[in-house]
Amino acid sequence: MAYQFIASDLDGTLLNPSHAVDTFTASTLQALAARGLQFAIATGRHHLDVMGIRQALGIPAYLITSNGARVHDPQDTLIHAQDIPPSLVQQLAQPHFAAGTVLNFYRNEDWLIDQPCQYLLDFHADSELSYHVTDLSRHSGAGVAKVLYIAEHEHLLQVERKLHASFADELYITFSAEDCLEVMASGVSKGQALQLVLQRLDIASEHCLAFGDGQNDLSLLQLVGHPRMMANAHPRLAEQLPQVPRIGSNQQAGVAHYLRELFAL
Length: 265
Fold this sequence. Notes:
This protein has about 260 residues and is of the alpha/beta class. The chain has two domains: about 5-80 and about 190-260, Rossmann fold; about 85-185, Hypothetical Protein, Haloacid Dehalogenase-like Hydrolase, Chain: A, domain 2, CATH 3.30.1240.10. It contains eleven helices and 13 strands. A hairpin with a 3-residue loop joins strand 6 (about 100-105) and strand 7 (about 110-115). The relative contact order is 0.18.
């Protein structure tokens, strides 16, 4: 089998438990890039946050961000964007859904939040991406790629049920982490965005490897010919894709070790 393309999630997958790039992983991907392999980073993060991670990896890579609502090429040209309809964004920002959470909007060039949150600043310390605090319940809803709720998991499960009851197929609703519930426009997903990239490069999905650990990686792993799931994958993902082979955890640089063995580096 001729592998031509590698797509990977970041947090819980390619990054270490400190959400950072380790040199072993970076050198592995650089060696594969030198062999002609092409890459996509597929994440829920904002593209402004991911540019620094790509630089640390030291490879040219497509950026699939906000769970597929934005796609940039290796030269940072925007090649795909899909926003949530503004009327739906306005509803998502109301207390019926947002009460008890830290509410966030991702837009093209900024990150809006309804209250200060040091945890999120610490999470983005490496990229220095920062938010602007504003009253999101009064926002027009224009230009929003992703709505993100931060709270304890049990509370977010209640929010998830409310969202599904209210919007059914109008939105894509997924967890990126236990404390992060994310909402995008219907039709948005990492898998759909990767399909756009592969079509652009005229690469068949069966020649693609993909790695993931979270519920927002489901479509990514379903699309490709060679899906791989982390040992630390979320139980919901494992239940939905029981046939997908498991590799090591991100704590042990599982992706890099797997690739080194597969490509005999």
